[in-house]
Amino acid sequence: MKSEPIIIEKASVGDSPRIAEIEKICFSVPWSENSVKDFIENPLCVMFAAKDRGVVCGYIGLYIIADECDIANVAVVPEYRKCGIATALISHATDFAREKNVERMMLEVRASNTPAISLYKKFGFEEVGVRKNYYTQPKEDALLMDRIITKKA
Ligand SMILES: CC(C)(COP(=O)(O)OP(=O)(O)OC[C@H]1O[C@@H](n2cnc3c(N)ncnc32)[C@H](O)[C@@H]1OP(=O)(O)O)[C@@H](O)C(=O)NCCC(=O)NCCS
Fold first, then answer.
1. Is 23 one of the annotated active-site residues of the chain?
2. Beta strands per DSSP E along the chain
């Protein structure tokens, strides 16, 4: 039987409950459903969801101010990991950011989060600083990473 492709589209407020559920699975300090909803409704923010037959299996949240874009979160549910969904989400986010004339993408990541750091390095993100004890539960430093993007010719 032919499997359905994973679709990436802008998340809507209706996706908030499922995204909040994934937050709980993936993070020790998850965003609440209201925080997700507020993010989706914030005109400076955009969230893209990866969907399998209409069900969210991953997402990426972007916060864009002028020519800078902060990746606020990216997550993929465990059953869907290691099959390129985060890669597809970051590629999609990069294309969107370029269209918005963003020149610099930034993010913070737990210093021990090897899968995420490896993912970001694949996209050319480089470590540019450390925020001491930035995270709680457990307390941990954040690595600051950034990447310059330019508009495709
Ligand atoms: C990090 C995360 C988003 C990766 O999602 P994914 O869909 O599995 O990632 P992809 O399949 O697109 O993998 C792309 C690259 O990420 C890295 N990566 C992903 N999982 C990895 C793992 N378990 N160990 C090491 N590297 C890993 C690899 O470089 C991989 O490239 P490769 O397949 O050529 O080795 C996912 O593990 C996740 O949701 N983790 C929990 C939430 C989180 O930590 N988010 C980041 C917050 S800053």
1. no
2. 7-10, 45-52, 55-65, 68-76, 104-110, 126-135, 140-148
What DSSP character marks residue 101? T
For ligand 1, atom 42, the nearest C-alpha belongs to: 75
Which residues 6+ apart lie within 8 Å of 63 measured at CB?
Answer: 42, 44, 45, 69, 70, 72
Residues with CB under 6 A from ligand 1: 26, 74-76, 81-87, 109, 113-116, 118-119, 122
Helix (H, G, I), strand (E, B) or coil at 150: coil
Smallest CA separation from ligand 1 atom 19, residue: 115
pTM of this structure: 0.96
State how beta strands 55-65 and 140-148 pair.
Answer: unpaired
Rounded to the nearest angstrom, the distance between the alpha carbon of 8 and the centre of ligand 1 is 17
pLDDT digits (tens, 9 = 90+) for 2-26: 567 999 999 999 999 999 999 999 9
Question: For domain 7-148, is the CATH number 3.40.190.10?
Answer: no
